[in-house]
């Protein structure tokens, strides 16, 4: 039996790979996509999601627009890693959608999908957590319909947008704290420490691009993203952060998780948006939240290639 899956996203190059992975995986049923501000503004993230849906031949999946700003404080700035439009300036190379956004907002779509589900739904937030925080705040009774959250976000040993904070959590720390600290939904956090270790090379991307027209279109979106990693990390490849989280949603247990107590820094100092992980042995008690800490790295890359090459 397939697992119903909702992806909450801010496409984003790695988000594009994540959506494609879900579309290519028979273990899950992609029942909805919701968009949020993040890598670029909400209008662009939503437009990108619609074009990616068209590329993947999944016009049946509803796409609903969500939050265009954080819960409380203004968003300082958007990411530059993904280019001017979120897809390396190449969003227009994707097919024009034949279906527009769902008339419902993101929270309403998620609510109605959860209410209608006959089995637990996995939600994979791979952008700022604003939409999910709003869902849980407005509809706490629906928590029982959520099988698991698989959240791409945070860094155990530092960040990427600041020295301390990873972009998704930093974009709305108050929402992140609401979801990761104050709620009790079973949650797996996939931090950038692990996703960086799952990075793929430019050669891997080139090989993937030769497998199909859809794969080639995906790879064609990576130019600015590749430039960013070459410039900042000296690495000829990319980190497909969000696809690693979706891989765990597709194959639970693909990533090794450790039960940690966590917090999110919501102060206004240099640590704002940081994921604070208590790694003391005495604090490791079984709970609702685990942090993904390890995996078979080559196995993850092979899984991604196998699925994405089947598009």
Automatic annotation (TrEMBL):
BP terms from Gene Ontology: purine nucleoside catabolic process
Keyword tags: Glycosidase, Hydrolase
The keyword 4Fe-4S is assigned to this record: no
Hydrolase among keywords: yes
SUPFAM superfamilies reported in the protein's UniProt record: Nucleoside hydrolase
Pfam families: IU_nuc_hydro (PF01156)
Region (Disordered): 71-104
Matches recorded under Gene3D superfamilies: Ribonucleoside hydrolase-like
Gene Ontology molecular function: purine nucleosidase activity
Domain Inosine/uridine-preferring nucleoside hydrolase: from-to ranges: 5-300
GO cellular component: cytosol
PANTHER family named in the record: INOSINE-URIDINE PREFERRING NUCLEOSIDE HYDROLASE, URIDINE NUCLEOSIDASE
Name of the protein: Nucleoside hydrolase
């Amino acid at each position: 039996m397939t697992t119903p899956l909702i992806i909450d996203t801010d496409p984003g190059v790695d988000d594009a790979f994540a959506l494609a992975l879900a579309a290519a995986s028979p273990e899950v049923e992609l029942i909805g996509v919701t968009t949020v501000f993040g890598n670029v503004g909400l209008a662009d993230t939503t437009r990108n999601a619609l074009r990616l849906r068209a590329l993947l031949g999944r016009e049946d999946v509803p796409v609903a627009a969500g939050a265009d700003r954080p819960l409380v404080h203004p968003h300082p700035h958007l990411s530059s890693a993904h280019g001017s439009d979120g897809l390396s300036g190449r969003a227009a190379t994707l097919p024009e959608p034949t279906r527009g956004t769902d008339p419902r907002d993101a929270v309403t779509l998620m609510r109605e999908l959860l209410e209608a589900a006959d089995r637990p739904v996995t939600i994979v937030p791979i952008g700022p957590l604003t939409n999910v925080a709003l869902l849980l705040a407005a509809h706490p009774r629906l928590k029982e319909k959520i099988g698991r959250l698989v959240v791409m976000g945070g860094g155990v040993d530092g960040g990427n947008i600041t020295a301390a904070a990873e972009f998704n959590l930093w974009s709305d720390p108050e929402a992140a704290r609401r979801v990761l600290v104050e709620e009790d939904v079973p949650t797996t956090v996939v931090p950038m420490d692990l996703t960086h270790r799952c990075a793929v090379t430019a050669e891997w991307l080139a090989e993937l691009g030769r497998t199909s027209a859809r794969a080639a279109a995906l790879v064609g979106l990576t130019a600015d993203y590749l430039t960013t990693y070459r410039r900042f990390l000296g690495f000829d490849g990319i980190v497909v952060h969000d696809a690693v989280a979706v891989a765990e949603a597709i194959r639970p247990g693909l990533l090794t998780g450790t039960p940690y107590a966590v917090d999110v820094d919501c102060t206004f100092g240099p640590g704002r948006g940081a994921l604070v992980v208590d790694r003391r042995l005495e604090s490791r008690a079984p709970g609702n939240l685990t942090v993904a800490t390890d995996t078979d790295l080559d196995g993850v890359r092979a899984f991604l290639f196998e699925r994405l090459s089947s598009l």
